[in-house]
């Protein structure tokens, strides 16, 4: 029973047809990697899964909830779907701990103590417990991205979306972020990942999808993608 169903999704930016009828079904616990040239619609597509982008035609159902422009559904879906961006998007004037506890306190209405407790567990899990009271600007890119992952996980999502999570990182920091993602995948998180990291796709993905010019043009196992004669 699939947790993401996207059916014939179309998206226009003005006259530009960015998604030209894209369909994808993702099962619980599955890790799907989206690849393809820059501008092919990968980011636009995954952003429709948590209503960061509207779409004009087609159907998206997340964990049984139909994603329409009904605001109530959007709130429900945003609680289920966490997202990590290329540029971290942390709040610079808040500490690491405050970044992570903000949404649980204000959206989930958790007590500060409960939110902080979970945040500390998550920081330990992503390997940066000792940075809890620092500000994002005091951290390396790799550390900031791990904070962003912890912040998304603090909402206890059922699905995690990653939009080129390592593209803004220096090479030596890429691995620490991919390791965190690999562990998440092992723990059974449903993940849709836009990345150019072939190694990650090969080792972690259950399925690799290739997009081009707003179309989904190929879908298969990592083996069928990377081990062709
Ligand atoms: P990818 O993630 O594969 O690089 P994107 O989804 O970011 O591709 O973009 C797909 C296409 O849509 C690109 O041609 C891009 O320029 C265009 N696009 C993205 N966002 C907007 C926007 N807000 N307004 C107009 N065009 C956009
Ligand atoms: P990415 O490929 O990583 O998504 P882009 O450079 O395509 O990054 O887009 C960065 C931001 O600019 C996004 O918010 C996207 O929606 C917006 N954008 C991209 N292309 C256009 C465009 N042609 N017109 C307006 N906004 C755009």
From TrEMBL:
Top-level division of the source organism's lineage: Bacteria
Residue ranges annotated for the ABC transporter domain, each copy included: 4-229
Pfam families listed in its UniProt record: ABC_tran
InterPro entries tied to this protein: AAA+_ATPase, ABC_ATPase_HisP-typ, ABC_transporter-like_ATP-bd, ABC_transporter-like_CS, MetN_ABC_transporter-like, P-loop_NTPase
Entry keyword Transport: yes
Statement: the UniProt record of this protein carries the keyword Transport: yes
UniProtKB keywords: ATP-binding, Nucleotide-binding, Phosphonate transport, Transport
SUPFAM superfamilies (UniProt xref): P-loop containing nucleoside triphosphate hydrolases (SSF52540)
GO molecular function terms attached to this record: ATP binding
Family: Belongs to the ABC transporter superfamily.
Alphabetized PANTHER family for the sequence: AMINO ACID IMPORT ATP-BINDING PROTEIN, PHOSPHONATES IMPORT ATP-BINDING PROTEIN PHNC
Protein's name according to its UniProt entry: Amino acid ABC transporter ATP-binding protein
Species: Calothrix anomala FACHB-343
């Amino acid at each position: 029973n699939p947790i993401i169903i996207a059916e014939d999704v179309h998206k226009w930016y003005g006259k530009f047809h960015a998604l030209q009828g894209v369909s994808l079904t993702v099962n619980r616990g599955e890790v799907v990697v989206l690849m393809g040239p820059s501008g092919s619609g990968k980011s636009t597509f995954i952003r429709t899964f948590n209503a960061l982008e509207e779409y004009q035609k087609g159907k998206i159902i997340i964990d049984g909830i139909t994603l329409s422009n009904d605001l109530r559904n959007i709130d429900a879906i945003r609680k289920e779907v966490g997202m990590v961006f290329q540029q971290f998007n942390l709040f610079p004037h808040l500490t690491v701990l405050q970044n992570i506890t903000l949404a649980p306190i204000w959206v989930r209405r958790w007590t500060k103590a409960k939110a902080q407790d979970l945040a500390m567990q998550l920081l330990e899990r992503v390997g940066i417990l000792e940075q809890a009271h620092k500000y994002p600007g005091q951290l390396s890119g790799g550390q900031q991205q791990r904070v962003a992952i912890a912040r998304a996980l603090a909402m206890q999502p059922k699905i995690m979306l990653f939009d080129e999570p390592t593209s803004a990182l220096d090479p030596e920091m890429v691995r620490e972020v991919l390791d965190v993602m690999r562990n998440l995948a092992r723990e059974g998180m449903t993940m849709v990942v836009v990345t150019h990291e072939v190694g990650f796709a090969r080792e972690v993905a259950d399925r690799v999808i290739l997009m081009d010019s707003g179309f989904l043009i190929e879908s298969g196992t990592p083996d069928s993608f990377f081990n062709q004669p």
